[in-house]
Amino acid sequence: MWQGVVLAIQVGVPVGALFGAVLAPTAGLLLLRDVPLWQAVLIPAAGTVIGGSLGLVHSLWFALDAMGPDPFRGALGGFVIGVIGARLVARRVQRTVSE
């Protein structure tokens, strides 16, 4: 059991660092300029963790086939959903404040 946890950490940390080093600044500059800093960090990070966890549970629960979701695709999808969610939340708050 512990070998699987250690392997997940050994693989997940470098891949997560690579995703974060490339995707976070890109999303920040292109999509999250009008979003407060705490939301621009917290919401995509939470989406990444939730998406990766759901991908891991799905890949462990069902047989992992070649095209099935895995933690990396889940994390990437969660990040994208988190960025879109942060953008929509900030836009809603700005619209309410300006009215």
> Secondary-structure element sequence?
HHH
Low-confidence runs of at least 5 consecutive residues? none
Secondary structure: helix percent: over 70%
- Please count the helical segments: 3
Describe it for me?
The chain is an all-alpha fold. The chain contains three helices and no strands. Helix 2 runs antiparallel to helix 3. The mean pLDDT is 81.
Key features of this structure:
3 helices; single chain; mainly alpha; 99 residues; 0% strand
What's the topology here?
Elements: H1 2-30, H2 37-61, H3 71-98
Helix pairs in contact: 2-3
Q: Briefly, what is this?
A:
The chain is mostly helical and 99 residues long. Helix content is 83%, strand content 0%.
